[in-house]
Amino acid sequence: xxxAFNFCAGPATLPEAVLKQAQSEMLDWRGTGxxxxxxxxRSDEFVAIAxxxxxxxxxxxxxxxxxxxxxxxxxxxxxxxxxxxxxxxDKTSADYINTGIWSKKAxxxxxxxxxxxxAGSSEDSGFTTVPDPAGWNTRADAAYLHYTPNxxxxxxxxxxIPDSGDVPLVADMSSTMLSRPVDVSKFGLIYAGAQKNIGPxxxxxxxxxxxxxxxxxxxxxxxxNYQVIADNGSMYNTPATYSWYLAGLVxxxxxxxxxxxxxxxxxxxxxxKLYDFIDGNDFYANPIEPRFRSWMNVPFTLADDxxxxxxxxxxxxxxxxxxxxxxxxxxxxxxxxxxxPEEGVDALIxxxxxxxxxxx
Length: 360
Ligand SMILES: Cc1ncc(COP(=O)(O)O)c(C=O)c1O
Prior knowledge:
Elements: E1 5-6, H1 16-24, H2 44-61, E2 67-73, H3 75-87, E3 93-98, H4 101-110, E4 115-121, E5 145-147, E6 150-151, E7 156-157, E8 169-172, E9 189-193, E10 203-209, H5 226-231, H6 241-256, H7 259-279, E11 284-285, E12 297-302, H8 308-317, E13 320-321, E14 332-335, H9 342-359
The structure holds pyridoxal-5'-phosphate.
């Protein structure tokens, strides 16, 4: 059996070494006679797995003791509500920057709980750029400033961390987490759905500055209360044990690769190759302002949309899978997360070059 190159935006390709290790440990995890899936979350074995995963993540991302790391459930989307419920405190308003579909979803959900001020938006440009922070209409009395560092669907990524002053900065890092070094100390809260750079879907990692705990509104569901989750080591109820374990294997793998610094260099190279190819070929195009192009999600269009299905069929036949763009934007999208080997990008470029030559 051979593995294909899977360019899916999420759930996304995982490192082959991680899958093999999980396979080898499936029936009997280190002499326990059972799979991690079957273990009590209160067992010494699982608690060790969980603590090691957290420790490795702290090391990889440079997370200090000023922050709690939570392994929650419900995906990144559940955080769209969890954040305002927990962070508004005695305030009523929150600032959001709108750079695409995921920002919009976060904004729509927050509006159910907060007076949302869209302090900056690039909607007028069709989300092809990040609005200039000099023009952001942020408010000093906002409970937090939320932004989406990488818009997975549009393929738009910030190359800077916004300065929110004393207002806690909140970031949806679902599709950029661990892809490059980031100064966590600049953030009040970071969250990331796992299914891109961390592990299986459903799990969501939340990194929260400890002084932001304990402000949840009275009506906040217990399972969404950060303080409760932190006080219980993310085990107030039965956590997503197998996903947590798999995330731990991914963190170990990342450390073996040289950590996020090394990944950042590889990711920059993979993205540059692909964008350079797209820019150098009249048949393909990417609409994003070059300095805001995502390293992780590379959307592109063909010169003629009528060729899309033929392009996808040929790609599938070569084991280049899931290149179809999101239904809302069309075209193609190659997601090239940490676990996508450089050979996958090379194989995609070879195919794109051949297709353009034959059909262009
Ligand atoms: C940036 C971003 N935020 C949020 C989500 C939603 O994540 P989930 O499906 O885990 O709720 C996604 C996509 O999957 C995403 O790419």
